[in-house]
Amino acid sequence: MGVYTDLREKLISDYATLSPQMQKAARHILDHPNDVALRSMRALARAANVPPSTVTRLMAAIGVDTWQQFRDSYQNRLLDLPASYAHRARALQNSEADIHRDAHLLQSIAQAEIANIGQAFAPEMCERMKDACEHIARARQVFVVGRGAAYPAAYQFAYAYRLFNENGVLVDGHAGAFGDQLRGIGPRDVLIAVGARPYIRDTVRAVAFARKQHCPVIAVCDSDVAPIAVDAVAKLVVSDSSPSFFQSFTTSVSVMQALVALLVARGGQKVLQRIAVAEEQLAAFDTYHEEAAPTRNSRS
After folding, report:
1. 123-284, what's its fold?
2. What is the pLDDT of residue 83?
3. Which of 62, 113, 119 is CA-nearest to residue 237?
4. Residue 181: per-residue pLDDT
5. pLDDT recorded at residue 197
6. What's the whole-model pTM score?
7. Quick one: which of 238, 233, 237 has its CA closest to 224?
8. Rounded to whole angstroms, how far apart are CA atoms 200 and 216?
9. Phi and psi, residue 169, nearest 5°
10. What's residue 100's pLDDT?
11. Domain layout of the chain by residue ranges
12. What is the pLDDT of residue 73?
């Protein structure tokens, strides 16, 4: 995947210098790499909502001679992926509408979620997740922010992380304390930011503030060029596509769960002891409802 990786990095590094139209094309290519391999240039331009000439100018701007040269690298990438990914990409494009509307919609949602999660756990993303865990493990404090529909993913990580580490801070703005919860953030900390288009202002502002304080940012988002991903030390790019009217954050939750699992797996005996203490505390507060054991005379 060498040529593909080089071209992708070129699109990301040059993104800020491109015209608005070329940025639209570049973002579509970054967010939908399979489109480059499977569609014509004109079809891709239509999907990106730009004229074909914009794609041609974009190729020239990043130093690519022809569209076919660019497309070849993306086709090679697709061939290098596990067969199930390539098959799934073609199957989704060739699927026909079911006459039973509700059944077709539910099936489409299931297929989209499975495809999104499959992409999120591809080899490159797994390497990014492991790299993100290195930054988290070294951090003095771990700040987590995700507003709006991204909040469940941020909360999922923060709650589970607090079961085995006391340095987690969920930046949720409770009682108007959003800015207060970021007080003291600095180079020895890390901020995990979760978001997707349309981006919530609070999340973007939190990331901007963290950057000013030289705090490393881990972005869990929908694009390498998302505003919360700029200059991030780790970019965990996930798809939020869904047949529903609303975007999906299922994959974001899965990635956050995976980060927690990696951290626990690497944590050794110390983490196990902390989890045991957390469970004792939960038991002391009688946190969980327990069903009564069945009696001998109870009916099954």
Report:
1. Rossmann fold (3.40.50)
2. 47
3. 119
4. 92
5. 85
6. 0.75
7. 237
8. 20
9. -130, 115
10. 60
11. 2-80, 123-284
12. 85
Residue 44 amino acid letter:
L
> Tokens at residue 270, please?
């110390």
At 23, list the tokens. Answer: 């940025």
Contacts of 69 (CB under 8 A, 6+ apart): none
Name the DSSP class of 226: S
| pLDDT value for 273 | 93
- Determine the residue type at 29: I
**Cα radius of gyration (the chain):** 22
Q: What are phi and psi of 175, to 5 degrees?
A: 60, 30
Q: Which residues of the chain have pLDDT under 50?
A: 1, 83-85, 88, 92, 97-98, 300
Q: Are 185 and 209 in contact (CB under 8 A)?
A: yes
Give the pLDDT score at 253.
Answer: 96
pLDDT at 1: 45
Residue 71, both tokens: 């497309």
What the block records as the tokens of 92 is: 């989704």
Query: Going by DSSP bridges, is the β-strand pair 217-221/168-170 parallel, antiparallel, or unpaired?
Result: unpaired
Q: Determine the CATH number of domain 2-80.
A: 1.10.10.10
The two three-digit tokens of residue 80, written as one number: 């290098």
Which residue is associated with the tokens 């040269």?
Answer: 69
Distance CA 194, CA 218 (A): 9
Report d(CA 246, CA 164) in Å as an integer.
34
For the record, the structure tokens of 297 come out as: 């005379």
